[in-house]
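Duplicate of #3305? Posting structure anyway:
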């Protein structure tokens, strides 16, 4: 069973395996409506079905609940069933490369108790670079019965607000350093970060050739970041609860278990002008 990452070689060896469900999550925040699905139709991993980050992995926006609100359990059950996922399936998610969108689906399945899910290390970029099989065929997917067993804890905005000064909570923000500091804000209306946060850009989890760093290296990185804090104190944030999942996945791959996600993240937090904000380095 693959529970964090899967290599391109291992996935290639299982393309004909009926117990594998492969999901394409390619997405572009600048072209959210059409880019990912257009890439999928142009070519994808054989057998992969497509899921949309906005339409499928997010609930409706209200203006105050962030850019990628977490869907209800019922909506997730319907989505995963439509994708052909049940308890017998090994799920593999991938995106164009780094794994940030794929990690969102990884976390959502883990959130609902499905352990057999992994992100394709290197994503479609490495798969294509290695000359592995691709297709334009859209698979016919039979619906499955997905049963939710919520296990992975999530954190809401009220819990974050109530624990800003508590030693039991360490917010780790996955955005780039310039956005964390508030130097720029290309997406959300307000720049800055949640007070008390520390910064770990999700891109720091990657090697120059587009793979995740080895587990031991990730463990050392995060150990240096956390100091004497336990992983269970960590709550991951980002702009909208997507790239935060990349840090959560990296820590899980490194054997640092028990961290949590604040799915609303900065886009939800900053939507209320009454909530405090911070700028500059942590």
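Output from current build:
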């Amino acid at each position: 069973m693959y529970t964090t990452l899967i290599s391109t070689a291992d996935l290639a060896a299982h393309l004909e395996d009926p117990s594998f469900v492969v999901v394409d999550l390619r997405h572009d925040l600048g072209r959210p409506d059409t880019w990912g699905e257009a890439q999928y139709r142009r070519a994808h991993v054989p057998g992969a079905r497509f899921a949309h980050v906005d339409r499928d992995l997010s609930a409706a926006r209200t203006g105050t609940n962030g850019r990628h609100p977490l869907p209800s359990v019922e909506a997730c059950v319907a989505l995963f069933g439509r994708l052909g996922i049940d308890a017998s399936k090994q799920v593999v998610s991938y995106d164009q490369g780094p794994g940030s969108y794929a990690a969102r689906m990884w976390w959502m399945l883990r959130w609902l108790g499905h352990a057999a899910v992994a992100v394709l290390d290197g994503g479609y970029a490495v798969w294509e670079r290695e000359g592995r099989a691709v297709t334009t065929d859209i698979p016919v997917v039979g619906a499955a019965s997905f049963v939710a067993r919520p296990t992975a804890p999530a954190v809401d905005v009220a819990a974050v607000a109530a624990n800003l000064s508590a030693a039991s909570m360490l917010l780790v923000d996955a955005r780039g350093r310039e956005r964390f500091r508030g130097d720029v804000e290309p997406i959300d209306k307000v720049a800055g970060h949640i007070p008390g946060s520390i910064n770990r850009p999700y891109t720091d989890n990657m090697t120059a050739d587009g793979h995740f760093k080895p587990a031991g290296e990730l463990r050392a990185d995060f150990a240096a970041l956390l100091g004497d804090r336990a992983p269970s104190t960590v709550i991951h944030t980002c702009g909208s609860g997507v790239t935060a999942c990349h840090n959560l996945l990296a820590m899980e791959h490194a054997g640092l278990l028990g961290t949590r996600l604040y799915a609303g993240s900065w886009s939800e937090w900053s939507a209320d002008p009454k909530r405090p904000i911070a700028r500059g380095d942590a």
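Confirmed duplicate; merging threads. The first strand starts at residue 5 and ends at 6. Strands lie at 5-6, 20-24, 49-50, 90-94, 117-120, 154-155, 170-173, 198-199, 234-237, 260-262.
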